[in-house]
Amino acid sequence: MRMSRLTSFASALCLIAIVVQPARSADQKFGPDGQKFAEVRKRGVEFLKTSQADDGTWTSNTSTGVTSLAVTALLRSGVPVSDPTVAKGLKALEKYVQKDGGIYQPSTSHKNYETCVAVQALKEADVDGRYDQVLARADKFLRGLQWDEEEGIDKSDVRYGGADYGPSKKRPDLSNTQFLVDALKSLGAKDDDPNIQKALIFVSRCQNLESQYNQTPLAAKVNDGGFIYTAAGGGASPAGKTANGGLRSYGSMTYAGLKSMIYAGLTAKDPRVKAASEWIRNHYTVEENPGMGQQGLYYYFDTFARTLSVLKLDQFEDAAGQKHDWRKDLADELFKLQQPNGSWLNPKERWLEGDPNLGTAYALLALKYCEPASASR
Question: Angle 210-215-220 (CA atoms, 0-180°, nearest 5)?
Fold first, then answer.
């Protein structure tokens, strides 16, 4: 997204009181204590360096997801491409580059997800153009997985514009669509890119908001502006159902939906953005994944941080009028949750978050957006 649009978006947020940017001196600081931040991040990096398998992967060599996230986390934490651990991880990922352009383990049922997160890792490491051709082919591969006219469906179909794990073509969901949008954006897609705009159609239908953009049967049953996992296949939300058959919104998908809408060029004036922003004002927290408790907590941390970072805002005002230095809030929570060995893991093991490699990768990715900042930057 172009800087002018982001600046306009931030200004509009102020106008509708989502965020308050109070008067401050040029040297006012935001974010956590710098020394503590550096210490915690270093310990997390050291954990990943010691938990890597001999073949360069983390956790599994039959799925590339955790390895891609770990490599990306190390690179974004300041570890250079030349570092032996990173180089070994990249070499492992290179073995999974397929003839069709995807980057995945051949027997996987998660081709979209694995390719999306591998793209993030290889793009981060592409300092000298070494992965330019691989990334160009991955871009084409991912676009081909999106549900659209190539699958014989049109814009009226609730599945249109979404992405699933790939290539099952059973049911697209907002999580995989978020990964797709993130990957395409990292590869240079603009907000008016056709595939980004197709994704916007699907994302809008995953919002609990009845509007001209969402006329699905579920749209008006909750109508709180938050997001569910998917509206396809009759709809699904791990947060459960309401008495009238609606699907409850929850935190990680609401941040994912809002971020995807911003990436597609929507501004704070759009009713979808207004409703989503109001939902997160009402549910601002770093102590749980709203609507899911501790389940999916580290995925939530990463998505929370990415979304608020995209807004380029230092403080966030919740529905009670309390102003939050969100970088400090999140970093301080991660400081508390770090294990003695430098890792992070979730006692609620759903979605593999009981794996310390995955938890640590998510935590380091989230911390990248919490780096101490000055208002004068």
Answer: 35
- The Cα–Cα gap between 334 and 117 comes to 22
242 Cβ contact list (under 8 Å, min separation 6): 221, 222, 248
Round to whole Å and give the CA distance between 359 and 215: 37
Give the separation between CA 21 and CA 170, rounded to whole angstroms: 45
- The DSSP 8-state label assigned to residue 173 in this structure reads B
Dump pLDDT digits (tens) for 47-105: 999 999 999 999 998 889 999 999 999 999 999 999 999 999 999 999 999 999 999 99
Q: Read off the tokens for 308.
A: 């608020």
Measured from the Cβ of residue 233, the count of other Cβ atoms closer than 10 Å reads 13
Give dist(CA 103, CA 253) in Å, integer.
Answer: 25
Give the Cα separation of 230 and 236 in Å (integer): 5
Query: Residue 163: which residues within 8 A CB-CB, separation 6 or more?
Result: 112, 142, 145, 146, 147, 172, 173, 176, 177, 179, 180, 199
* φ and ψ of 271, to 5 deg: -60, -30
The tokens for 326 are 């969100």
Task: Judge whether 184 and 197 are in contact, CB under 8 Å.
Answer: no
Distance in Å from the first CA to the final CA of the chain: 19
Q: In terms of pTM, does the model score above 0.70?
A: yes
- State how beta strands 323-324 and 316-317 pair: antiparallel
Question: Would you state the pLDDT for residue 348?
Answer: 95
